Amino acid sequence: MRRRQFISLVGGAAAAWPLAARAQQPAMPVIGLLHAAFPKSAAAFVDAFRQGLKEAGYIEGQNVAIEFRWAEGHTDRLSTLAAEFVQRKVNLIVAVPYVAALAAKAATTTIPIVFLSGADPVSTGLVTGLGRPGGNLTGISNLAVGLIEKQLELMHETVPGAAVIGILLNPMNQAAFASVPRDAQAAAAALVPPFLGS
């Protein structure tokens, strides 16, 4: 994750809040941070998040409030925690990772949601497309979605005679890599049609 890119996205979402909504909200906007992990394991992320907000002109306790909800590894709790933010009427929900974003998406269609995900946001159902996410969600995926074709092209240029290429994936994170085998097979077929199925 590129911290500045993520914080710019959050800052942009905050700046885009409608004036009418700001008039109805308390003087200090509230960001709800919904995270699937434990506070201790996400401490570096939270520090970077606060620092990035500060660099964008948002200082916790002065012109923005941040509330935290931690699932502590119990992803089944994310829906309840997201509903708390909706009931609380926070101005923005930041959700990490994609399972938290899915819970937030199910909880509200009106509160802006910014996600950070290691999964493909399209195949997991977070957004309808990368260029135009649609709905109330936007965010960043640190998965190199769509790069498998270029990676195979570079490998083919480097070792043109290679007939077999292995791809290692984490079986515990299938949502993050669901499209990789299909995309890799399609890319390989386009590069070297005679080897397909051999």
What do you see in this structure?
This protein is of the alpha/beta class and 198 residues long. It folds into two domains: 3-141, 3-Layer(aba) Sandwich (Rossmann fold), CATH 3.40.50.2300; 148-195, no CATH class. It is built from eight helices and five strands; from the N terminus they run ααβαβαβαββααα. It has a five-stranded parallel β-sheet, sandwiched between helices. β3 (92-96), α5 (98-107) and β4 form a beta-alpha-beta unit. α4 (78-88) crosses α5. The relative contact order is 0.12. The mean pLDDT is 81.
What is this structure, in a nutshell?
With 198 residues, the protein is an alpha/beta fold.
Oligomer: single chain
CATH topology of the largest domain: Rossmann fold
Task: Tell me the β content.
Answer: 5-15%
Q: List the helices and strands in order.
A: HHEHEHEHEEHHH
Backbone CA Rg:
20 Å
Biggest beta-sheet profile: 5 strands, parallel
> Total strand count, please?
5
Question: So what's the overall shape?
Answer: elongated
Instruction: Tally the structural domains.
Output: 2
Helicity level: 40-55%
Short descriptors:
single chain, 198 residues, alpha/beta, Rossmann fold, 8 helices, 2 domains
Q: Would you spell out the secondary-structure blueprint of this structure?
A:
Layout: H1 3-15, H2 19-24, E1 30-35, H3 43-55, E2 65-70, H4 78-88, E3 92-96, H5 98-107, E4 113-117, E5 137-141, H6 148-158, H7 174-177, H8 180-191
Parallel strand pairs: 1-2, 1-3, 3-4, 4-5
Helix pairs in contact: 1-3, 4-5, 6-8
